[in-house]
Amino acid sequence: MKVTLQQVLPNEIEKRSFQIIEEEMGQLQLDPEVAPIVKRVIHTTADFDYLRTLTFSPGAVAKGIAALREGASILTDTQMARSGINKAALAKVGGEALCFMSDPDVAQAAKEKGTTRATACMDKAAALGGNLIIAVGNAPTALVRLHQLMEEGKIAPRLIIGVPVGFVNVVESKELILSSSVPFIVARGRKGGSNVAAAICNALLYLATGRAL
Amino acid sequence: MKVTLQQVLPNEIEKRSFQIIEEEMGQLQLDPEVAPIVKRVIHTTADFDYLRTLTFSPGAVAKGIAALREGASILTDTQMARSGINKAALAKVGGEALCFMSDPDVAQAAKEKGTTRATACMDKAAALGGNLIIAVGNAPTALVRLHQLMEEGKIAPRLIIGVPVGFVNVVESKELILSSSVPFIVARGRKGGSNVAAAICNALLYLATGRAL
Prior knowledge:
2 copies of one chain form a homodimer. Chain A has helices at 13-25, 35-45, 50-53, 60-69, 79-84, 87-92, 104-113, 117-128, 140-151, 170-178, 194-209, and strands at residues 54-56, 73-76, 97-99, 132-136, 159-162, 184-187.
C-alpha cells in the first residue's frame, strides 16, 4: 500500500494544522476574542463539535489572561491535565500548575466523607485559597462541589474551565456553572476531557505571554 | 435555574457510565474481544465515532494482554499519555510507563537531525530495545519513524497503539501502521489523543490483571 506523506517541517506542523482548521471552518466567523481558544481545542481533538459546544461567559478570555498575568496558578482535577499544561509558559507569568488528586489528605478526606477525591480536592482548594484558575477536565463531582463552595462564599476562582467528559452528571454539572456568575469557559454536553482542559489553559497562556498561535 | 443531579455513589459512577454506553449502543454487537477497549475509549471521550474508527489487527487484544503479563513496558509519545496510564495496574504485571519526550538527549538528537522530538524518541526506543508496547496518542511523526524502524528490522514492538490526533499526516501515519504486519490498535481518521492512548492501555491492563470493567 502506497501512503504519501505531506512534507512539512517539524516547526511548521502546528501552523499548518491551524490553517487546515481555518480552511475547514469556511465562512464561519468566530468572535476574535474566543477564536484562539476554540481553534486550539479543535487542534487538540480534531473534533469540530467544539465550534458549537464551547461557551464563554462575557469577557472570560480577557479575565483568564488578566488572572494569569497576575500570577494565578492553575488547579486541575487530574494529573493528566496538569501534565498537558505548558509549564514554561506558565512559569513566565509566575504561575504554577497544581493538582491535589494524589495527595494522601485528599484520599483520606474522600474516604471519611464518602465523596470522590475530586470533591475533596475542591475542599482543599477552598481551604488553601489563593489566586486560582480551576480547570476541570474529568470529574463532574469537582464542578458540583465547586459550585456549592462558591454559593457558600468559600471560594472565588478567577475563571472556571469546565470541560469534564462522560455520562453521569457531566451535562448537569456544566449547567450549574453556566447558570452561575463566575467567569467560565464550558464545553456544553458530554464531551470534554483532560486534553481539552489543558488545551484551553495553553491557549490562554499563549495569549497571556504573546506567543504566536 | 434548577439542575437535578443523578444520585450515584462515587464507586458506582464508572459502572453506571458503562451501562449508559451499552444502552446507547442498542442492538450493536461488538466482537467480545475488542468490546472492553472500545467501550473504555467511549467512556474517556463520550465520542461514539470510535465505534467505527477503532481498528484491531487479528488477536491484537490477546497479544497486548500477553505482552503485559510478560512484563512489557509501555512507551508513550507524550508525558500526558504516560500520566494517564494506571501505574498501579501496570506495576502489578511488572511493567513501567516510559516517555522520552523530556529527555535532553532526545531534544539534542531532534535538533541535530532536524526531526521532531517524537521521531527522536522512537530512535531512542530502537536503540534501547526491550519488551515494549508503544502507544502514540499525539505525534504522527512518531508512527512514521516507528514504521520505518520496523521495516529496517530495528524495532519490534509487541503492540502498537496508534491513535495520534490532528491534521497533518495523522491519517497517513495510521495507514502506514494499518498496512503493516505489526499487531496494532489504530483509530482511523483524524481523531485520537493522549487520553485515548491512555484509555486503551488501561483497558488492556484491566483485562491483563482481571480488574472488573
